[in-house]
Amino acid sequence: MAQVTKLNVNGRPCAIDADADSNLLSVLRDQLDLTGTKYGCGEGQCGACTVLIDGSPRRSCITPVGGVGQKPITTIEGLAEGDHLHPLQEAFLEEAAMQCAYCTSGMIMTAVSFLRSNPNPSAADILHSMEGNICRCGTHPRIVAAIQRAAKTMTHSMKESGQ
Amino acid sequence: MSGKPDLQIPLEPERYELNAPPAYRFELDRREFFQFLGAGILVVGVLKHAHPLQESGGVRRTDESLPKEVGAWLHLGENGIVTVYTGKVEVGQNIRTSLSQCVAEELHLPVSRIQMVMGDTQLAPFDMGTFGSRTTPTMSPQLRKVAAAARVLLIGLAAAEWQTDRKHLIAADGRVTDPKTKRSLEYGVLVKGQQLTETIPAEEPLIPAVQWAIQGQSLPKVDGRDFVTGKHQYPSDQKLPEMLHGKILRPASFGATLVSLDAHEAEQIPAVTVVHDGNFVGVVAPSAEIASRALKAIRAEWKAEPQPSNQELFEYLKKNATEGRDPTGDASRYAAGSVEKALAAADHRLQQIYTVSYIAHAPLEPRAALAQWSGDKLTVWTGTQRPFGVRSELAEAFRIPVDRVRVLMPDTGSGYGGKHTGEAAIEAARLARTAKRPVKLVWTRDEEFTWAYFRPAGVIEVSGGLRSDGTIAAWEFHNYNSGAAGIRTYYDVANQRIEFHPTRSPLRQGSYRALAATANHFARESFTDEMAHLVKMDPLEFRLKNLKNERLRAVFEAAAKKFGWGQARAANHGFGMGGGFEKSGNIATCAEVAVDRKSGEVKVLRVVSAFECGAIVNPDNLRNQIEGSNIMGLGGALFEAIEFENGRVLNGRFSSYRVPRFSDVPAIETVLLDRKDIPSAGAGECPMIGLAPAIGNAIFDATGVRIRSLPMVPNGLKIA
Fold it and tell me: What value of ipTM does the predicted structure carry?
């Protein structure tokens, strides 16, 4: 079986040793110690394992590592810049959009990608984009509020920086 | 007996949460604490009512299920950091935060100076577990008393240092100050070089709720940053050097026994070990993937027993009922007056049957454990609501004394009453014993759906008799299997008969957030709505007519007001309400639904919940719990049900077992009634119980169709 030895994760080249058909989730968690990405179902139904590959949200539990190549992978650990949290991370704290928080990484990663493609979403847009992510504690309204808050912050800071 | 049952006394202990304390509890070695923690002061809280005979182990208590003696302890170190030890655990209810608030309040310290060590059986005093909404009403007062004692101790140290009268000294902001001389010392400085131990009877007067400065505030989740950055290490994230991964071979069906095993092929895979011990078969490998591959290579033959399916569930439960007797005692029966006479004399009579399906907790983090043996000592990191219970399970499974077992519980990816047991812990430990290396085992979603336990299914039969003025004159209520929690009625009915009938359960069942209170309130509050319609009264008016309990009246009135009860509804929209009393909390929930008559789709548009649980410790977290209870409750109310046949779960995946998702979630408003004159109660469970009947009653209001089964519309609503 073909082996995969390199990945590009959170802006860094990473050495791994995995079969090409190994799922990306287990490689991130077990080989690279990036345990912020969670196992929830193993069938792409809950979104807890969401990471960005080339900026697009992907269910790492059903993504064979052999197909990733050198495309940049972003996990929850790669979102903050130093001590500076991503606006979505800030917004999840501000809105207390979590209870057990096991779904939080996947929620945030899904929302990061979504806000890039839709910076001014309606509440309905948010519901639609987050439908594939499960929160069992029932913090959904707070997650929606956090995404709305982050959208405002990000649009505002884009204007400030003249983009 | 009067028709006013005392609602403070539960009808029976929570049968599905019952767990006995250990037979012995031994002397604490306080010196170990100081060796471990460094100098400072250690305050040990001894619970009141501690019985001398119990302490010697001579007499076992039978009256109460809570353990006595030491309830909590805390250490204040030279760095001014307070470390609090409690057996309670964090599963998302944010109790780490609210307990920190309690300690901070009494010690006059910022929350940031408090560390909570939770659910470590080696460091925390024995605790039965985190369930039954008991942490706030029982652990908070204990910690507050211990913290208050520490404050008194600190003032004493300052008084001795300054050789002054302690009476005028003030503790505030982490310092003791003498307002006369303006002298002031930080707590950490005061305890420098001390090894003071104070054992208190936990009787220090506490700061009353009206004077709270830290409690009553919406403080954010402690360590929240670790959760949004992926840094927090859940049980399934734990890792040790040399660690291996385990997988378990599951029987072909529930209760099946292993007839033959061929593990030859699996054992040929490099670095794989197969562990076979009776019915237990597992594999250990360097990665979970290799372990899974090895598992697939094992050929096993199982002898299965024929078992009932969900198609015949409710007949089965009725047929297998223990005739009116509860083996745990007769506390599951309650009677007052004469139901027969009252029914015969009633102007209206009504009889209905309600059913409740098995549902799964489906915590997003499945069961996980990391086990390590060091000689004959076992350490297990696992996600459980009962670390001490799991310690006992491990000790029993491996026939070793409990003092050789340490269970640690990292803050876990939820529980909802579903993680009381130590399956994964035992399995990981068994694999680790053979592998002679640490072993981590994380259940798959399929395993979590199948081999955990379920919320009990049930059949509930209700009869009522009414006078024409809307007075409930007779009330008869029989619950088969689902449980006795919340079975008693809070409506004032002179003639009652209420019974819980335990039965054989086809599936392994156990506690679930709010226990049977959800089922019993669904039946009672739906039936109440039916009675109101029978006498052509408004459901709110009908309830208030039959309800004397002021706290419950207050929440019904508050919810109705906020909701706009009595307003006109759009076509195919309906309003409904439900509420009740559980775990010392009072909830009333109103719901608006819209029904698509063609497709049968039922959409819950908005929900208003009014809740009162005494003095509020953290308002925003309380709202979060109420919202979460309603959203989680939506699944069991509308579409969640475990399908099973012949000892197999048929829909054990998120693709076939539907849980609430974003588009299902209604607009939710909460009304908090803050009763500073009433001790704080827990809030993780009670808010759930009003939702299902509110939705069912709203569906009836919209369509005239009455649904008496949970879930109500797994396949949409059929309108004849």
Answer: 0.97
Question: How many CB atoms neighbour CB B492 within 10 A?
Answer: 18
Which token pair is B89?
A: 């655990």
Distances, alpha carbon B372 to alpha carbons B238, B365, B376, B395, B617, in Å: 12, 21, 10, 14, 38
pLDDT of residue B21 exceeding 80: no
Considering only the beta carbons, identify the residue of B231, B365, B668 that sits closest to A141: B668
Cβ-Cβ contacts under 8 Å, A136 against chain B = 361-364, 414, 416, 632, 659
Encode pLDDT of B56-97 as tens digits.
Answer: 222 333 333 333 456 678 899 999 999 999 999 999 999 999
Checking if the pLDDT of B17 tops 60, the result is: no
Whether residue B614 lies within 8 A of chain A, CB to CB, comes out as no
Partner residue opposite A102 with nearest CB, options B93, B413, B667:
B413
Cα–Cα dist A64/A19, whole Å: 9
Mean pLDDT (whole number) for B30-57: 61
Condensed to tens digits (0 to 9), the pLDDT of residues B149-186 reads 899 999 999 999 999 999 999 999 999 999 999 999 99
Phi/psi of residue B525, nearest 5 degrees: -80, -25
End-to-end CA distance of chain A, in Å?
47
**Contact between chains at B224 and A29 (C-beta distance less than 8 A):** no
Inter-chain residue contact B230 with A35, CB threshold 8 Å: yes
Best residue in B247, B656, B662, B663 for a mutation probing chain A (most A CBs within 10 Å)? B662
Mean pLDDT of chain A: 96
Separation of first and last alpha carbons in chain B: 45
CB contact under 8 A, A134 and B661: yes
What integer pLDDT is reported at residue B198 of this predicted model? 77
B296 SS3 class: helix
Contact across the interface for B224 and A130, Cβ inside 8 Å = no
Answer whether B654 sits within 8 Å of A105, measured CB to CB.
no
Contact check, Cβ <8 Å, B224/A43: no
Question: How far is the alpha carbon of B365 from chain A, nearest alpha carbon, in Å?
Answer: 6
Contacts of the segment B321-325: beta carbons below 8 A, 24+ positions apart: B321/B480, B321/B481, B321/B501, B321/B502, B321/B503, B322/B501, B322/B502, B322/B503, B323/B501, B324/B499, B324/B501
Task: Take residue A47 and report the two structure tokens written for it.
Answer: 């979104």
Provide, as residue numbers in chain B, all residues whose Cβ is less than 8 Å from the Cβ of A99.
92-94, 414, 624-625, 628
Contact (CB<8Å) A138/B631 = yes
Total-model pTM? 0.94
Instruction: Report, as an integer, the average pLDDT of B254-279.
Output: 97
Domain A3-78 is of which CATH architecture?
A: Roll (3.10)
Residue of B nearest to A21 (CA): B289
CA pair distance B353, B616, nearest whole angstrom? 37
Give me the residue spans of the domains in chain A: 3-78, 87-160
What are the structural domains of chain B?
Answer: 15-228 (3.30.365.10), 235-305+367-442 (3.30.365.10), 320-358+454-710 (3.30.365.10)
Q: For residues B78 and B193, what is the distance between their CA atoms, to the nearest angstrom?
A: 8
CATH 2.60.40.10 fits A87-160, yes or no: no
